């Protein structure tokens, strides 16, 4: 998995999904998240033979760029796609299409809160379609670069 911005820095900067959490008078009193601007940085699979149709999202903060707050695994296709093509356990497939904390990547104590925020606020239909477009462009660009190396 490599970051989308490594191939498309300008597009990634323009299309990044940000969440601003600030000290507002009507803020939820039980919120564990500190005031900051958080970005969901996209990573995609760089294997040209793979068509996993998923994204890994790392949540980082503007004022703490070296800290990964959560790593979320998300697939935008329906459960049948992942179940048939990848032979995954139905429970794991369901988690993939709803978004889940990635079990092998870095997580903070706030990761469950960022996953909840992703499901409730970040992930809407426009963003789902954007991730899908980014994935397609990413794979096309990798294929183009590979073809240039191996004419």
Tags for this entry?
151 residues, alpha+beta, six-stranded antiparallel sheet, globular
Short recap of the structure:
This protein has 151 residues and is α+β, with helices and mostly antiparallel strands.
Parts with pLDDT < 50 across at least 5 consecutive residues: none
Count of discrete alpha- or pi-helical segments spanning 4 or more residues: 5
Tell how many strands the DSSP assignment holds: 6
What is the overall shape? globular
How many domain regions?
A: 1
Distance between the termini: 25 Å
- Please give the share of residues in helix: 40-55%
Give the ordered list of helices and strands.
EHEEEEHHEHH
Chain oligomer state: single chain
Q: DSSP strand (E) fraction?
A: 25-35%
Mean pLDDT: 90
How large is the radius of gyration? Answer: 16 Å
Main sheet properties: 6 strands, antiparallel
Structural class by secondary-structure content: alpha+beta
What does it look like?
The model has no long low-confidence stretch (mean pLDDT about 90). The protein has five helices and six strands, in the order βαββββααβαα. The chain has about 150 residues and is an alpha+beta fold. The chain has one domain.
């Amino acid at each position: 998995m490599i970051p989308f911005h490594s191939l498309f820095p300008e597009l990634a900067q323009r299309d990044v999904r940000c969440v601003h959490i600030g000290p507002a008078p009507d803020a939820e009193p039980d919120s564990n998240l500190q005031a900051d601007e958080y970005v969901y940085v996209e990573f995609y699979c760089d294997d040209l033979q793979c068509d996993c149709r998923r994204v890994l999202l790392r949540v980082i903060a503007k004022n703490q760029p070296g800290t990964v707050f959560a790593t979320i695994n998300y697939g935008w296709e329906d459960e049948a796609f992942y179940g048939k093509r990848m032979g995954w356990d139905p429970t794991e497939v369901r988690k993939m299409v709803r978004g889940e904390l990635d079990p092998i990547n870095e997580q903070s104590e706030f990761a469950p809160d960022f996953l909840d925020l992703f499901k409730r606020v970040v992930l809407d239909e426009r963003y789902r379609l954007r991730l899908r477009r980014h994935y397609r462009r990413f794979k096309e660009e990798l294929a183009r670069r590979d073809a240039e190396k191996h004419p």
